[in-house]
Automatic annotation (TrEMBL), chain A:
Pfam families per record: SLBP_RNA_bind
The family this protein is said to belong to: Belongs to the SLBP family.
InterPro entries in alphabetical order: SLBP1/SLBP2 (IPR026502), SLBP_RNA_bind (IPR029344), SLBP_RNA_bind_sf (IPR038294)
Keyword terms, alphabetized: RNA-binding
Name assigned to this protein: Histone RNA hairpin-binding protein
UniProt feature, compositional bias: Basic and acidic residues: 35-44
Domain Histone RNA hairpin-binding protein RNA-binding: 116-184
Region spans: Disordered: 1-79, 92-111, 202-221
Alphabetized GO MF terms: histone pre-mRNA stem-loop binding; mRNA binding
Lineage: Eukaryota, Metazoa, Chordata, Craniata, Vertebrata
Cross-referenced Gene3D superfamilies: Histone RNA hairpin-binding protein RNA-binding domain
UniProtKB/TrEMBL annotation, chain B:
Residue ranges of the TM segments: none
Assembly, per entry: Interacts with EIF4G1, EIF4G2 and SLBP; probably tethered by SLBP to the 3'-end of mRNAs ending with the histone stem-loop, it also interacts with EIF4G1 which is bound to their 5'-end.
Location within or outside the cell: Cytoplasm; Nucleus
Species of the source: Manacus vitellinus (golden-collared manakin)
Residue ranges constituting the MIF4G domain according to the UniProt record: 78-249
GO CC annotations, alphabetized: cytosol; histone mRNA stem-loop binding complex; nucleus
Protein name in UniProt: MIF4G domain-containing protein
Similarity section: Belongs to the MIF4GD family.
Function of the protein: Functions in replication-dependent translation of histone mRNAs which differ from other eukaryotic mRNAs in that they do not end with a poly-A tail but a stem-loop. May participate in circularizing those mRNAs specifically enhancing their translation.
GO biological process: regulation of translational initiation
InterPro entries linked: ARM-type_fold, MIF4G-like_typ-3, mRNA_TranslReg/HistoneTransl
Gene Ontology molecular function terms on file: identical protein binding; RNA binding; translation activator activity
Amino acid sequence: SSPQHPPRWAQARKRGADGRRRRQNEPESSVFEENEPRPAESRQDSFTTPEGPGPLSRCSDWGTAVEEEEMRTNVNKEIARYRRKLLINEFSRERKSSSGSSDSKESTATVELETDEVVLMRRQKQINYGKNTIAYDRYVKEVPRCHRVPGVHPRTPNKFKKYSRRSWDQQIKLWKVALHSWDPPTEGGCDLQEICPVDLGEMETESVGSNSESQTSCQDN
Amino acid sequence: MGETGKEEYKIQSFDSETQKLLKTALKGQQVFVSSPAMCSCTRPCTDLGCFPDTPKQSGPREGWVLTVFLLSADPSNVDLEKVANIIVDQSLKDCVFSKEAGRICYTIIQAESKQVGQSIFRRSLLNRLQQEYKDREELRTRSLQAWICYVTFICNIFDYLRVNNMPMMALVNPVYDCLFRLAQPDSLQKEEEVDCLVLQLHRIGEQLEKMNSQRMDELFSLLRDGFLLQEGLSSLSQLLLLEIIEFRAADWKMTDAAQKYYYSEVTD
């Protein structure tokens, strides 16, 4: 039953639920109904806002969206923690007498960290793929972190350090190959753990400089 | 091992600590988790989806009985995706359940995360929720009650499930969309929908506003208009709307005056 004069709020609603502007006197019911057939999938897969961190992919489903949200907040927590750890290392080293301690873990110069969220998320996903394996589980159970021997035991690449894309991808590859030593024994010796990292896009900042593979202090994960 | 299609996910047996955790979480809701043999079906029942419709009156069992999938004799084979679907299905049928399902889901998510470091349950739950959300208009046409249960459920989930102590961003707009729907003229004329709307705003309004205050402003604009101009509003609906408008104006707090006016016994 449509009233003679459309209720005031119907006129006051400038936009329908889909964001399109409503024409004058458009009935309220069209706000939620999808009268016109939509052009099939004409929406872009990703979009960039001027002040955003970079291309944002359109959320495909809530499950994925929440997982990414979680990863993003975890990464932010981790970087804060990592920064604190670096600071603490700085302070404790300053306290010791300055006769070049051979086990200095970080250079005293300010280390530039990787802070680009897109890069960090991509790296974290690659790390997650590597850790989400039976081999990694077995490795971690067999060799507690404090017993790890550098050079012998694989070490998770540090996502907060500046590396070029190629360098990083190579480190990941080597790390995962090394983890294969802990694959569970199988009959045919087939490779159970061949997981390809997802290529999340070409977005990358080639970082100048340090391509060093200096081992750093343990990450917390 | 190639993954052809979808592999049924199995969780290794919940350890006793997790079981205790689940029992405690469920206890406060007057739900007794029982083994299949104890459900009210007359024959031995191993059906994961068995929810007797009427609560059993006899004995110490109250409310309804959640069948076993968590604490069965054989907990080692729990298909979490199925569990998620069962919970959603039940929420759409039973409004009392949908109010509390958030807590159950929270518990399962914690348990899964702790046990195996995965989030199959959460993912299945959210995607199922999204499916229902896409078809919500049909749902409402099909069954007003199920629609109301759905809104209650999704708001409950929003309330309980957090990501690193923050509400889930992905749910903010869908929740708003549901509330906006409830504020439409045809819904305002139904007391049950108005009741649902104000209940949800009481529970999660403040949080929702923090996540997106502009939409909350728009929503209350609709509510104000509805209160003033909507024909066919029952006096209860009017009361509910006025109360929530005042509640928000008081920064989502109950003032003494409002408490006295709306919630105290009136002496004739």
